[in-house]
């Protein structure tokens, strides 16, 4: 079978890498891909929102399965179009992607079906939201309704900040239409977890729970980013909590969508807060997480293709659960100077050849370009250096040893990825 992966980040490199080990795949295409992906797939330059171009390409090449990485094509309904054209595609339709593209939709769904989440109020008018601010005490969280590339949630610690945030969102429209409607919700203290499941719209098949590190700087300081590193599994979720999450959060959500007339297929990503030993949903995403996919796929034992096909075909119930290698997998994101605001580009990356044949190390590429035999930086998050080890300590040591082999001008990475697990385990 020929497969096409849409996207060009570390998540897509991990997908392509995993697919490249699949028995039943003859060739892999990636649009647009990146420097590392071009070593294992045919990369094609095309706008990932050019849906006509993508369907035309898929028909011409006889693609048997398309896998969508990022949220934006899902938000515009890429799956609906491919389904109409009869091309198998992995991901939710536009109405399913609403769970990520509209926080109000997600919160109202959770409210209606009693899925645990922070209590909240929805505002369509600035004056109403501002009046509400006078009635509550920090900490609380103000969130834009729409997609903001991970920058639409503001944790308010000081009252005076809230007025400013609200004005920026609803009046100055710093995130465009995404901020015209907002949610103001209770702050939940605790530890965060990313809980991803495959689903065919009926059955859920969980992946190993993982933890992202969203802030730019060590000890969770600085601005939020797409994610500076992740590891899996995590010590904060035991088997009984996994069952509780599968039943009361993930399956309940899929059933709730069905009840609303939405068949949700693909990956459902629960961004959870574990507060006093109980899991609550902070947000849902309609896709694989990045960087989470990198450590998760690195430690995955299964052939991924049958799982993806079963989600599309609605036969996940017939499949055995996921299998995982034993141990721990850790990914450290190496970013460009200036990320997340104005990342530098065009710097030559040195040292990758030293890590090519290491069994427990994989360097997934994100913002890279290959020119001749050299790789250059071409984005904010550049590499996801990923390592497996027997213990948290072992995996963390290996991953940072690997990072120390790599060099490019202005490279930046967090030094404390996995530290929370190390402190807890
Ligand atoms: P979101 O875009 O909704 O995932 O929020 C981004 C980040 O803001 C999350 O990863 C949390 O660290 C934080 N956050 C969002 N909502 C809450 C909440 N209700 N309580 C505590 N922290 C939150
Ligand atoms: N790592 C966070 C996300 O994929 O949304």
Protein model, in words:
With 425 residues, this protein is α+β, with helices and mostly antiparallel strands. It folds into four domains: 2-93, Rossmann fold; 125-180, Dna Ligase, domain 1; 191-318, ATP-grasp fold, B domain (D-amino Acid Aminotransferase, Chain A, domain 1), CATH 3.30.470.20; 328-424, Phosphoribosylglycinamide synthetase, C-terminal domain (Glycinamide Ribonucleotide Synthetase, Chain A, domain 4), CATH 3.90.600. It contains 13 helices and 23 strands. The chain has a five-stranded parallel sheet. β10 and β11 form a beta hairpin. α7 runs antiparallel to α8. The N and C termini lie far apart (43 Å). Bound molecules: adenosine monophosphate (AMP) and glycine. Adenosine monophosphate (AMP) binds next to β7, β8, β9, β16 and β17.
In short:
It contains 13 helices and 23 strands. With 425 residues, the protein is an alpha+beta fold.
Give the name of the CATH superfamily of the largest domain.
Answer: ATP-grasp fold, B domain
Return Rg in Å: 21 Å
Number of helices: 13
The count of domains is 4
Outline: globular
Catalogue the ligands.
adenosine monophosphate, glycine
The average pLDDT value, as a whole number, equals: 96
Poorly predicted parts: none
* SS-derived structural category: alpha+beta
Distance between the termini: 43 Å
Largest sheet: 5 strands, parallel
Helix content: 25-40%
């Amino acid at each position: 079978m020929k497969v096409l992966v849409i996207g060009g980040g570390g998540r897509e490199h991990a997908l392509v890498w995993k697919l490249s080990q699949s028995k039943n795949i003859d060739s892999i295409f990636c649009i647009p891909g990146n420097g590392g992906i071009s070593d294992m797939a045919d990369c094609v330059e095309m706008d990932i929102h050019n849906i006509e171009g993508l369907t035309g390409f898929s028909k011409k090449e006889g693609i048997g399965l398309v896998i969508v990485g990022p949220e934006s094509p899902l938000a515009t309904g890429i799956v609906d179009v491919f389904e109409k054209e009869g091309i198998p595609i992995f991901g939710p339709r536009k109405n399913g992607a609403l769970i990520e593209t509209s926080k109000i939709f997600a919160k109202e769904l959770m409210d209606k079906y009693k899925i645990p989440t922070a209590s909240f109020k929805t505002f369509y008018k600035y004056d109403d939201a501002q009046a509400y601010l006078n009635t509550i005490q920090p900490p609380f969280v103000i969130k834009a309704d729409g997609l903001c590339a991970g920058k639409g949630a503001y944790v308010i610690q000081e009252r005076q900040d809230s007025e400013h945030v609200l004005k920026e969102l609803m009046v100055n429209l710093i995130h465009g239409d995404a901020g015209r409607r907002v949610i103001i919700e209770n702050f939940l203290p605790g530890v965060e977890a990313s809980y991803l499941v495959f689903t065919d719209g009926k059955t859920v098949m969980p992946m190993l729970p993982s933890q992202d590190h969203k802030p730019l700087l060590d000890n969770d300081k600085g601005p939020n980013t797409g994610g500076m590193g992740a590891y899996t599994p995590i010590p904060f979720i035991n088997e009984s909590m996994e069952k509780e999450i599968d039943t009361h959060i993930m399956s309940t959500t899929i059933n709730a969508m069905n009840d609303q007339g939405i068949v949700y297929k693909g990956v459902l990503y629960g961004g959870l807060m574990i507060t006093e030993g109980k899991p609550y949903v902070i947000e849902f995403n309609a896709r694989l997480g990045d960087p989470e996919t990198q450590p998760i796929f690195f430690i995955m034992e299964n052939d991924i293709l049958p799982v993806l096909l079963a989600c599309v075909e609605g036969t996940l119930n017939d499949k055995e659960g996921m299998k995982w290698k034993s141990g721990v997998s850790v990914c450290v994101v190496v970013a460009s100077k200036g990320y997340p605001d104005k990342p530098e580009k065009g710097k030559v990356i040195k040292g990758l050849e030293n890590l090519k044949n290491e069994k427990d190390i994989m360097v997934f590429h994100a913002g890279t370009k290959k020119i001749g035999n050299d790789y250059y930086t071409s984005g904010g998050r550049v590499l996801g250096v990923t390592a497996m080890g027997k213990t948290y300590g072992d995996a963390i040591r290996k991953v940072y040893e690997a990072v120390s082999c790599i060099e490019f001008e202005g490279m930046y990475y967090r030094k404390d990825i996995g530290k929370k697990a190390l402190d807890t385990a």
